[in-house]
Amino acid sequence: MTAVLTANGLGKRYGRRWALENCTLEIPAGQVVGLVGPNGAGKTTLMHLAVGLLTPTTGSIEVLGGRPAESPAQLGRVGFVAQETPVYESMSVADHLRFGDWLNPTWDQQVADRRIDQLGLDRSQKAGKLSGGQRAQLALTLAIAKRPELLILDEPVASLDPLARREFLQSLMEVVAEQQVSVVLSSHLVSDLERVCDYLVVLVASHVQLTGGIENLLAAHVRLTGPRSGLETLPPSLQIIEASHTDRQSTLIARVDEPILDPAWLVERINLEDLVLAYMRQIQPDASARPHLVEAHR
Amino acid sequence: MIQLTWLQFRLQWLVAMLALAAVAVVVGLTGVHLAHLYGTNVAPCLVQLQANGNVGSCGTTLTSFIHSQALLQNVLRDALLAAPALLGIFWGAPLVAQELERGTFRLVWTQSVSRRHWLAIKLSVVGLACAAVVGLLSLMITWWFNPIDRVNANVIYWQGPINLNLNRFDPSVFDLRGIVPVGYALFAFALGVTAGLLVPRILPAMAITLPLFISGRFAVTWIRPHLIAPVRQSLPLVWGPGAGIAQGGTGTGFFVIAPTPKLPNAWIYSNVVVDQAGHAPTSQFLQSTCPALTVDLAGPAGNVGGGSVSTAAPGPGGPGEQQVHACASAIAARFHQVVTYQPADRYWAFQGLETAIFIALALLLVWFCFWWIRHRMA
Amino acid sequence: MIRLTLVQFRLQAIIVAGILVLAAILFAISGQHLYHLYNTTVAACPAGSDCSAAKDAFLNNHVILRQLLGLLLLLAPALLGIFWGAPLVAREYESGTFRLAWTQSISRGRWLLTRVALLGLASVIVAAALSLLFTWWSGPFVRITADRFNPGNFDERGVVAIGYALFAFALGLTFGVVIRRTLPAMALTLASFLAVRLAFTFLLRPHLMAPHQASMPLQSGEGLGFSPSASGITFSLGTPNIDNAWAISSKVVDSAGHTASNSALHAFMVNACPAIVSAVGSGQSTQGVNHAPADPTVFHDCILKLAQNYHLVVSYQPASRYWTFQWTEMGIYAGLSLLLAGFCYWWVRRRIA
């Protein structure tokens, strides 16, 4: 299983502040990867490092086997849509397609035309006059018509209404099916990711907290409800991600290797949102006390 | 990439072409008239001037000619003076700053072009456009001013109330003719692009380009006299137009002013009267040798405004012609004239050198931009 | 709102203030030197004697600096309009921040009013400071050349610069509000400001008040000469200078008060100055001058003869009207600015963004 993105101790610092720190990742190919975390966690930084808009302060990153943006050919293999989907306001939709054609040798005009027609965009419309959803679709068209191997999308649906969001994600899924491209998609809306992603990376406070296939992650984590006194009876290999206690009762979200047999504990499956929230709410005193990164390859 | 640059630039190019066309119409119509006027009225006067060595009755014709279309002269001069700075500000500063400020660099720098290729094409297309616009403008204006310049070149004996002898080397003429404006334009453009790269916001980049450009122009104008070593020529002192004895200030001593050398269109650095050892005539020497000329300058009450110049020419109330002649011979016996100047035929050498300096500065800035965009912009 | 605007423009204000202070210092140093020089050389020249040499020498000081400073004074209002006027509203539109600014609990009108008032005031201060400094600094020169009323010099001195600055600012504001894009607004502001200024100075200003007419004798001097024309040899002249007044135009008039036509002049000269006529040649030939008289006295004699029958009538604005014109022009430009500002106010409030 080849990796589309490999990061090793990757870090990026602006002045005193580390936007991303000690990030080690291996994202497998052929997946739709969700990159989730609160605002300011470093999602955009990681993506900009992956497309060569930033260079690392420490560590290294490899995309599709090469350094990001090391050559025009390398740039052609990665399609990127930045946050806020920047477009040239005074250029028309048709001009943007020409833009893509002129700047990308691997540009497939048929794919672009088909998509624009499907979306019903007016080619003579200036990009500045498009609605948010239409701009996102235009940006996506530009990214995919050059037939990349990897698509990186930075919060593409953040400012879209629910309908536009749904359409965009559906569109994206069609593209994935047609072109067999790997996707890395960031969002802070977990529900969107649940619908389309099969791999997850959780970034909190400039550090990677969790990575893994979603199915495996959900299988490996449970919610335990039980008496406070029962804490000692839990297997030692169990990792508690999040705990909340009342006088007599504890609710835990934990990663388990083996089944919990103690009947005092109620074991439930959790959904992705709760899982992600649990990891995002973790307090992280220092690196040594940090819980393990969970990596599960399919 | 060239097509994209053209797509984004074509509106600005159109505006510039329209402006140039308007200037061309005005310049064409008035310039033809001016050239015709020169041919009929002025050229014959100049022939006579060169033959006789003095202006004679042509003085007023020539004066009125070089003042013709005074308003248009100023407008054209200001246009060519401002053009390089305007292009640097409006075409140079936003070139990169606009992409950076609006975030579209995240779109274009993730297409299949390297950043340096992107910058190279943009710089080349727009930079060439700047050179072309200013080059055409300079061509038109140099052509338009040609008759006036030719008059100015020849009237070395002719000084009005304010010295209007604007030969080609005078800064207000040199800077606005020939190829130097193209050098200025390329420099201003490169400066604007660099400012936009370092200060990735359009308006501040525009605002700092102007004072930086002006400083650069000042600096090079200041070193211009030192670019080529001037010619130093010793001549026997012949009392002629421009020569005189003057007083430095109330109560200070007298000194000699050398006659105007016959060097049309040359750039005179200094023009002095000295002896073999290189010393100028002392005030005592002048007062003892030419008492008639030095006494008269002092005036009735013995006070006179400092720096006053007397041509010591014969005329009512002044020293007589004999006294002037005697004085002149006495001085010429011991002193000679030394002129330090750039000959007129070095004009194009200076134009070429200054253009080369500004192009070199522009290239330096461009190199810096490439370095910056590769190593520091991530 | 005032505080917000001050905070937003803090950096620009500091930079501009710094530049003004620096300019004031430089002006002061240079001006002291100039005034001292003037007092010891030109002013010390006793009245009645020929001071032209001293004057010439003084006028040769700082020629380039004078031209540059004059250019700066002409440019400063335009720059204020471009950098402060045009982006004021256009930037908000371009970056979308108008959606933030105009949904606060302050009306659009008041938002615009506060910003325009503060920046307009700043523009006035900058223009007034520069104008004051330059007027003081160039005082000695103007005392010698006595041409402060002429176009060009008039524009750089006194109070008109304040009017220009306000107008450029308002013009920039208007273009920014209507076009909503900063760079085109800046370019249009520059072009139209220059056009309006040129048009006003040469088409309107001469007619602000009815000019006086004065008779002056024909004298040889700058700008007088003979040249061929379609109707024979004609006599052309420049407009003579009247100290501190604005001589707008002049014409040659005969003793009965009628304007002399080219053919009348030609006829007169054929009789009175045959040498000149043959020298300058007939108007038909393109060869022009055949022989110019070597003797300048022939030229002077002809002028003397002309002066007995013809004189000049000069149309001019007297020197006493200088300040009237300054304040009137400033008032007109300021009035135009208010109109433009009012238009912008109305436009911003009525138009749906």
Would you mind describing this structure in some detail?
The complex is a heterotrimer of chains A (298), B (378) and C (353). Chain A is of the alpha/beta class and 298 residues long. Chain A has two domains: 3-205, P-loop containing nucleotide triphosphate hydrolases (Rossmann fold, 3-Layer(aba) Sandwich), CATH 3.40.50; 217-280, no CATH class. Helix content of chain A is 30%, strand content 30%. In chain A, strands 5-6-7-3-8-9 form a six-stranded mixed sheet, with helices on both faces. In chain A, strands 11-12-10-13 form a four-stranded antiparallel sheet. Chain A has a three-stranded antiparallel sheet with strand order 2-1-4, covered by helices on one side. In chain A, a hairpin with a 2-residue loop joins strand 8 and strand 9 (207-213). In chain A, helix 4 packs antiparallel against helix 5 (132-144) and helix 5 (132-144) runs parallel beside helix 6. The N and C termini of chain A lie close together (10 Å). The relative contact order of chain A is 0.14. By secondary structure, chain B is mainly alpha-helical. Chain B folds into two domains: 2-19 and 70-141 and 152-227 and 345-375; 238-334, no CATH class. Chain B contains twelve helices and six strands. Chain B has helices at 2-52, 58-66, 70-102, 105-108, 115-154, 171-174, 180-198, 202-223, 283-289, 291-298, 321-334, 347-375, and strands at 231-236, 244-247, 254-257, 267-274, 309-310, 336-342. In chain B, the strands form two sheets. Chain B has a three-stranded antiparallel sheet with strand order 1-6-4. Chain B is elongated, with a radius of gyration of 27 Å. The two termini of chain B are 22 Å apart. Chain C is mainly alpha-helical. Chain C has two domains: 8-45 and 53-207 and 322-350, no CATH class; 212-317, no CATH class. Helices cover 65% and strands 9% of the residues of chain C. Chain C has 14 helices and five strands. In chain C, helix 2 runs parallel beside helix 6 (108-137), helix 4 packs antiparallel against helix 6 and helix 6 runs antiparallel to helix 14. Classes of the chains: A alpha/beta (298), B mainly alpha (378), C mainly alpha (353). At the B-C interface, helix 1, helix 2, helix 3, helix 8 and strand 5 of B face helix 3, helix 4, helix 10, strand 2 and helix 13 of C.
